[in-house]
Amino acid sequence: MSVLALHGGEPVRKTRLSYGHQYIDEADIQAVSKVLRSDFLTCGPEVSELEAKLCEITGASYCIAVSNGTAALHTACLAAGIGPGDEVITTPITFAASANAVLYCGGRPVFADINPETYTLDPASVEERITPRTKAVIAVDFTGQACDYDALRAICGRHGLLLIEDAAHSIGTVYRGTPVGSIADLTTFSFHPVKTITAGEGGAVTAGRSELARRVLLFARHGITRAPDLLREQGNSNWYYEQQLLGYNYRLTDIQSALALSQLKKLDLFSARRKALVRQYDEAFRELPGVLVQKETKGSDTVRHLYILRLDLDRLRWGRREFYDAMQAENIGVNVHYIPVYYFPYYQEMGYQKGLCPNAEAYYESCLTLPLYYGMTDQDQRDVIEAVEKVLAHCRR
Ligand SMILES: *Cc1c(COP(=O)(O)O)cnc(C)c1O
User: Where is 52: in which H helix or E strand?
Assistant: First the structure.
């Protein structure tokens, strides 16, 4: 057996492989340069073009580009009318922003448990946590696969709740023939560099209903409008506008929009490569004792953002911490997605206690994110698989 790099042996790779990386080509650089030479750096044509393109890709009727995925979640919650005293059900296995958005509005995030095999919200747990104060559900397409939306939509319909989909991971995913972006009442996207397409920083909200879309737009633009049919004082001139509520400056620039648009032209290419890499990982790990692969939500045709390997801890002498350290020593940039949101001191101080979501907590003890991005080569992937097999050989019972 070869000696682990952790124990002074040769690492599987000489150079470090990161867990994610953006892919920027000459066309992206040209698209950004063109904006820099133009009249509009912000509030120009690239923003509306991006919004139109996102509607086309997602099948949504409305799209509002915003400055990042967190702003998208915040404006979606504001548009949903979340305020003090309101509860919003979401998953603890997500980036903190999904729950923080509820807090920004004065509402209370309520954490429901995950399905232990797909790692997305368990609809039965969501239903259990509904109270008379529940206003909305924020479902997160964790790793890129759609949640069980047939069940979630039915629950939201029965209880009169708004469904917000955090699709930061899932652009390009299709659920039972419907693209992400036109499944929920409101869908939020992020274009951070680790996501499938990037704008440097950026985000968007899509909606099917105009009232919701208009509220998102109003909150993202200072609460200010010029739309003639929305103005309360009529008969004024072109220069006239009104601030009707307290909103924010969540504008996306034309520079960022041009980058996102150029990246979107490669979405099919990115998706195909990600799907192929996931297939190859699944094939390598499905039968391998000591690890478990993520199960696909029924009906989800997934563009995977994260590849999660689950350690079958009963069959290993090591926990995730040792496994993680051993993989890092082999020069494989593994990661952990996510620490349950309510574990953070900020949430603990608000009174959330460990034990709330047993499946999520067990998941957290055993999850490991492997590198997955468009630019990784087949050799890179073989290195990851070799390193997993090497570490497993040392720590299997
Ligand atoms: C990245 C991410 C966000 C936040 O997006 P930003 O663009 O970084 O603000 C929200 N939710 C999830 C699940 C994310 O992965």
Answer: helix 45-58
Task: Record the tokens describing residue 142, joined without a space.
Answer: 């964790």
Whether residue 101 contacts residue 138, with contact meaning beta carbons closer than 8 Å, is answered with yes
- pLDDT, one tens digit per residue, over 157-179 is 999 999 999 999 999 999 999 99
Quick one: the chain helix, strand, coil %, rounded to 5?
Answer: 40, 15, 45
203-207 and 242-243 beta bridge pairing: unpaired
Compute the distance between CA of residue 310 and CA of residue 300 in angstroms, rounded to an integer.
20
Q: 316 phi and psi, to 5 degrees?
A: -120, 150
Please state the separation of Cα 336 from the chain's center in Å.
Answer: 15
**For residues 120 and 143, what is the distance between their CA atoms, to the nearest angstrom?**
9
Sheet hosting strand 291-293, strand order edge to edge: 291-293, 307-311, 367-370
Ligand 1 atom index nearest CA of 203 = 7
Ligand 1 site, CB within 6 A: 68-70, 94-95, 97-98, 140, 166, 168-169, 190, 192, 203
Quick one: which of 15, 36, 73, 28 has its CA closest to 270? Answer: 28
pLDDT of amino acid 338:
97
Give the SS3 label for residue 371.
Answer: coil
Q: Report d(CA 378, CA 5) in Å as an integer.
A: 22
Give me 92's structure tokens: 């603890």
